[in-house]
Fold each of these.
Amino acid sequence: MVIPESSRSISQEDLLRLLGVTRDWLASPPGRWLLESERAVMRRELSACFGQHLVQYGLAAELLDDERTVLRNHWQLDLLAGPAALPVEETQWPFAPHSLDAVVLHHGLDFCLSPRSLLREASQAVRAGGHLLVFGFNPWSSWGLNHFAGRDWFSEAGFISPARLTDWLELLGFAVEKRVNGCYLPPLKSQAWLDRLRRIDALGQRHQLPGGGFYFLLARRQALGLTPRRQRGMVFPALHLPPLVAGNRRTHKRNE
């Protein structure tokens, strides 16, 4: 899907189409490589999260399929209804404030109408001491070149820089405890070339060099002053789910 260059916004309909195109791309060699790398990060880093309630929102609903036993209750939220996903509007999650122990945004900020609004909605559901786990595409990488050059779906994905996202998290009361980079090769379409160049990717991961195609931030909500009281038995404040509504967002091609 290509949004005209003269367009400075994306509608809900275009966003859903963009999600569909990108999810189809996940079945390609670079897409499978991306998910493989990110699942490896999740297996290592999710152990830092404690509690009972975890929510995932974003690009790949199956990212945590192998990690469902880490926290007792696990929900998947999506803009589209699915076999295991609750359909929600990105700024109206059906959870009480400070009721979740961990929230995973798997490129959710890269595919949304308003990254700041989505991040605010996700953050207010996290309890004091709870975690936000955020995956994002790095604009300062070979993957980012596709974004700025306007190639395929890359041109309309968010590509918010990790430095800017860290600033947003700090304003919301979170401290970034860890950053992990991954996918140091360009998103090559050839599986053979990806296999040949694996050593370069392994070297980048081993030394955590800058320039990875994706980044992962582990952020903990700070417990400053009075700790909000968690409402036991009130994770869901209501039984109904909000409907999807149309909206616009500024494109983040310029990393705004």
Amino acid sequence: MPTPPTPPAARRSDATRAAILEAARERFAADGYDRATIRAIARDARIDPSMVMRYYGSKEGLFTAAVSVDLALPDISALPRDRAGEALVRHFLSLWEDNEVLTAVLRVGALSAAGAERTRDIFRDQLLPAARRVCPDPEQAPTRAALVASHLLGLALTRYVLRIPPAVELSEGEVVAWLGPSVQRYLTAPHP
């Protein structure tokens, strides 16, 4: 049975939502959570501010929708145990390349409580379970995941946000060679 065509109003609604989210990502990345305003986002999306509130309810609701991130982490427990760190570093490098959503999350996470909360949620919900699958002591998984996040977020900050030249100039292979062993140690080494 063929799918009925989408009514014009629904198509406009989808287009409006998409325009709002795109404008919000750009504005949050440029201004941070606290300085970004619903009015500025609506102006960038070329809509009335009431439409932003209609679709997302609040600035917090808009931020949560705009920075919804699926890290799509590889199943590191299915890899040879000594390759987990390298696999995560490679994966994160591929995620960060030209990804305005992750850049917005990092910038806003560093500048506001709401952004920090959203960043913590993403890593708690996605990185922590991955660490639990390979960690030799499940009780240490939160600490180990936090150490992995410190390296990966530090790399992202220096390479993609601050654009510190030596960090930007590293090839993917060099980044993996430098960070992979540290991430591996955090994930699978015996307790220090």
Amino acid sequence: MLRVLVVDDHPVFRMGMAALLGSLPGIVVAGEADTADGAVAAVTALRPDVVVMDLHLGEPAASGVEATREILRLRPDTAVLVVTMLDDDASVFASVRAGARGYLLKGAGPAEVERAVRAVANGEVILGPAVAGRAVAYLTGTAAQAPAPDALGALTAREREVLDLVARGLDNRAISRHLVLSQKTVRNHLSNILTKLQATSRGEAIVRARRAGLGGP
């Protein structure tokens, strides 16, 4: 049986996805989660084969991208399929960079969801038609890079410092140690950064930071 974990902060969608997957032959829903931390904990405890992951989990300093990255750090054999409303380039690129094997929009039909879950479980990469072209361009290095030298101009010096460390892959705890700040202060800085950049997730902020030259090569 293929064991699946469903992660989404909207209970109606989460329960609907769980019901759909649980009705399919050879698939069992191992559990559900509604936060990034809950997703990581559930993967550690339940060891699912596939995680169906939303990106916007209602947390300003955490997202499905961060959860995906941490899940794959702990259990690299887990397949993550992103199913989200977010269809912007930054979200697609950040998910691919974090290690997601698939990316669908929430408008995908049941047959498309089933095919994607089984495909990522088999080690395939599957992308919904709405995002496939942009993701391929990104992976092949042909995606347009927005020239945004002043995109981070609204940030304070400390916020730029925090964003630089985020773009280097550090989590909140490591950033707090590096800058000798409390984790609460780091979360506050991240919240301000997302607001000023009008970013929907930490992953999107990372993409913008790298385009602006932060985060190293």
Amino acid sequence: MFQSLPATTLAVFLALAALSVLTVTVAIFKITQFRRMGLGRHNEAEAILDDWLNGRPDEAQRKATASGSVLSRVLRAVMSGLRARPSDPFYGEELARQAALVELTRMGSRMRLLEAVVQMAPMLGLLGTVIGMIDAFGSLAASQAAADPRMLASGIWTALTTTAAGLSIALVAYFIAAWLEGRIDDERQTIEMVISSAIHGRVGQTRG
């Protein structure tokens, strides 16, 4: 079937295949990156906060240094600032904000590629359909013989497959991007919570 396709339609299929490979590659990269960064390891952050708020700063610092999670790195920054300048909580908060910005920037890397796939795949599929329809009806118009409905239907079917493929790729990329963005948003909210807790304490709990 692919050998009989016009060169432009074949190019659209190849571009859609490249987008599907890109989607899978980015998804694998982000999942691996999140695991290495330690996303979602909230229990470790809770243990560090418990030590910090209950008057065990050395133990909290030790746990934060030993842990490899995003939250522990942010907590290490805020605790270092608060211990360096106990009378200036703004300094610790600023260090934590800077550490959080670095982590969030890393988490958001490559996400725009998935957004690009979501936008490009349907347009490429539609372009392939339009090109295929033009080719099918152009061949019909140039033919001197009687029109064969089966040949016309075959050409239209082939043209419509590019739109179906483009929409399928876009849907997959959209759900992957939404899932990854959800994890990033959850980590962002948790970062804000642990920074506030480390500086001001938890609700109903005061620092020792």
